[in-house]
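Feature request, filed as a ticket because there's no other form

It would be nice if the structure record came with a short human-readable summary line next to the tokens. Right now we just get the raw output. Example of a typical job, pasted below so the devs can see what we mean:
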Amino acid sequence: MIPFLWRTATTGLTLWLATLLVPDSMHFEWGDATSTWQKVGIVAVVAVVFGVINAFIKPVVQVLSIPFYILTLGLFHVVINALMLWLVSWFTKQVTHWGLIVDSFWWSAIWAAIIVSIVGMVVAAITDALADR
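Raw output as currently delivered:
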């Protein structure tokens, strides 16, 4: 249970930091949330949705897109990550009317996917370094 909570927290932190780095095209829609804890809860729910989509849908899409991985020498992975972010955005907007909002797929989601990947690697490196202490 602790690894799940830790991964959810780091994913939420990564998504929140990405919204700060790509402010015009990616942001959180808070709905009626006014307190900080409600906003933290929204980020946590979005992180769980992101994790579920990455666990169940992303592997299927990756297998189906193997030829594109080969043709682009792996760069298609950025497009797959952007698709997962856009899917999380669409899901949270349609189901809850709050959550992660990615304005458009092509450049917004692509840049956000790159930022999420880089920030995720940095956050993982920091948390792994702290865990080894």
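Something like this underneath would help us a lot:
The chain has a mean pLDDT of 91.
The beta strands are 26-29, 99-102.
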